[in-house]
Structure formats: structure tokens, C-alpha cells
Amino acid sequence: MEKLTTRKQYDDVKARVEQLIAEATQKGMLEPDMDNAYTQEIALLSQQMSDYEDEYLNILPLRQKSPLIASIEDYFYAHGMKQKDGAKLLGVNESQFSLIMSGRRRISMSFAKRLRSKMGIDAGLIIDYA
After folding, report:
1. Which of 14, 22, 35, 121 is the most exposed place for a label (fewest CB within 10 A)?
2. Please, what is the angle between helix 83-90 and helix 94-101, to 10°?
3. Alpha-carbon torsion 98, 102, 106, 108, what sign?
4. Long-range CB contacts (< 8 A, 24+ apart) of 73-79?
5. pTM
6. 52 within 8 A of 4, measured Cβ to Cβ
7. Is the separation of the CB atoms in 125 and 71 below 8 Å?
8. Rounded to a whole number, what is the distance in angstroms from the first to the last CA of the chain?
9. In this structure, what is the dihedral angle of CA atoms 50, 55, 56, 59, given to the nearest 10 degrees?
10. Residues 31, 28, 52, CA angle at the centre, nearest 5°?
């Protein structure tokens, strides 16, 4: 696989991928689980683009939400609550709670205990992701 080293090469490969996607879509050759010349070339070129992006463009990867935070949000959704309601339920101010939910503030032991007692969040999940 040829390594991309210039922005022009990257832009050319990107244009080729877009062309391949358009052609494959038009011909019905880009359905899930398909393996054909289009999907193979798109995969190869996409990997070249990804390698270039990692090395030269400093694109940060998307952050994945912690399973603990997702569980708290699921609780809110199931109970028709907003984040401010959750802060009140858990006995913290809204700004502290916002920092916890965004991952910018660590969860204290007392807060972890309230997650378990007030929301029924699994203790193992709390221990693994707090």
C-alpha cells in the first residue's frame, strides 16, 4: 500500500473515494456486507487517508462515552429527567454535575454511593468506570 505524504495526494485519494462511493451506490454495489472491487478499493484508499490524517493532520479521535455516564443518561431518559433534576437527586450542584457528566471531574466515593442508592446503578459499573 502506497503511503500518502502530501496534501495533494490526500486530496486526490479523497476525490477518488468519493467517486467510487457514488459509482458503487448508483450500481447497488455498496450494500452492507458486500465484498467487491468497489468496497475493496474504498477500504484500501480509506486506510491510506486514515494513516495520512494520523501522521499529518493531528485529527483527534472521537471520544467514547463511558458506560457509567451512558447508564446515568439512560436513567434520566427512562424517568423523564433533565441533567439539573439528576444533580438535585444526587445532591450536587448543577455545575459540578455537568463536570462529572462531561468527564472533567472525577467521581467521589460519596457520589458513587449515591449513584448506587438513588439510581440503582450497578456497583461494578461504578467501580470500573468512576
Report:
1. 35
2. 110
3. positive
4. 73/101, 75/119, 75/120, 75/121
5. 0.53
6. yes
7. yes
8. 42
9. 60
10. 60
Q: Whole-angstrom Cα distance, residue 64 to residue 6?
A: 30
Burial 113-130 (b: 16+ CB within 10 A, else e): ebbeeebebeeebbeeeb
Contact 13, 56 (CB under 8 A): no
Place of cell 494513516: 51
Alpha helix positions (H), 35-82: 37-52, 67-78
* Residues present in the chain in total: 130
* 49, 59 contact by CB (below 8 A): no
The three cell numbers locating residue 109: 466515593
- Rounded average pLDDT per 10-residue block, the chain, 130 residues: 91 95 91 87 92 82 82 93 93 90 88 95 91
Extract the C-alpha cell encoding 16. 477518488
The predicted pLDDT at position 60 comes to 65
Main-chain phi, psi angles of 6, to 5 degrees: -125, 160
